[in-house]
Design brief:
Strand order of the largest sheet: 4-3-5-13-6-14
Oligomer: single chain
Helix content: 40-55%
Number of helices: 11
Number of strands: 14
């Protein structure tokens, strides 16, 4: 028989008062019930813990040796219980997130700043990665959830609608596109050398699908993993960048202009990505609520709430 926590608490109460009557009162149990618990603990350990007679109670040498160990056990378990309560009520813990760079450049920091005002003891770890990597991290349990785009059907994940943003063409001030229509078509852009994001990015996948449906060919002047780099390439005159509108917050747009591209297959939907059949932790649930609130209250935000 293994010692129980109740029996250990009984031992510590008797060791504290050296009287069974007072120990029973502290534990809110009868003295006979306390005596049974001590006897069961001694039986489980195969040692005598107390010397007792009608006049006094004292610890045996074995009891004296075990006392600090039992005190540590109780203290550790009480710490676990306290921590569990704080985690349940989202007062402490860690939230691990993988999100698109366009989301981590504005929405996530804004949500983090507001969240920490009411949850100062929660640590938030953010990975800014491309869409394909987000799904991999979610499926491998490397993050609690992701914020990205599901590019292909996948039964191992579930996606909650979150936000959507437009895809735009970014070009230098004075570029011929600046004098064109206020909303561009893909064919307007493909007449010029293009700066595209990496092949595993959500915008690149959507762009290539759109081009395949239209049967158009493009001149790719350069590729970049980060939107800030792509904007720098546009500033240097390397071409027209195809980026989400949220790129205006990802790098310098001084000297640049942009216009929305109207193409049915080029509309980006960004969702909260979770592993299927996995329950969110309380702190993750709270931060997801903060993200939804951030999208509704963030001023001048290029994203639209879904």
């Amino acid at each position: 028989m293994q010692p129980s926590f109740r029996q250990i608490r009984a031992f510590l109460a008797v060791a504290s008062h050296m009287k069974f009557v007072r120990a029973a009162e502290e534990l809110h149990i009868s003295q006979p019930a306390l005596t049974v618990q001590i006897s069961q603990l001694e039986e489980a350990l195969s040692i005598k813990l107390f010397n007792r007679n009608r006049r006094e109670v004292s610890l045996t040498p074995a009891g004296q040796n075990l006392l600090p160990m039992f005190e540590r056990i109780v203290a550790d378990l009480e710490e676990v219980m306290a921590a569990s309560t704080e985690i349940h009520h989202a007062r402490r813990g860690v939230v691990r997130i993988a999100a698109l760079p366009s989301v981590t450049s504005r929405i996530v920091p804004y949500a983090m700043a507001r969240f920490r005002q009411t949850h100062p003891n929660i640590q938030i770890k953010v990975k800014d990665v491309v869409a394909e990597t987000i799904v991999e991290l979610v499926k491998d349990d490397k993050v609690d959830f992701g914020i990205g785009t599901r590019l292909t059907p996948d039964s191992e994940i579930k996606v909650e609608n979150f936000i959507t943003d437009d895809v735009c063409a970014f070009f230098q001030d004075g570029h011929p596109l600046q004098d064109g229509p206020p909303v561009l078509k893909l064919s307007d852009c493909t007449a010029y050398p293009l700066v595209l994001t990496g092949k595993n990015s959500s915008v690149r996948v959507l762009f290539e699908r759109s081009m395949a449906r239209e049967g158009a060919e493009v001149d790719i002047a350069s590729e970049a993993n980060y939107m800030s780099t792509a904007l720098g390439m546009v500033s240097a005159g390397l071409g027209v960048a195809i980026l989400p509108m949220s790129a205006i917050h990802a790098g310098s747009v001084s000297g640049l202009a942009y216009k929305r591209i109207d193409a049915p297959w080029l509309h980006r939907r960004v969702g909260i990505i979770r592993k299927a059949n996995r329950t969110d932790s309380p702190v993750a649930e709270q931060f997801i609520r903060a993200l939804h609130h951030a999208t509704a209250s963030l001023p001048n935000d290029p994203f639209q709430k879904l």
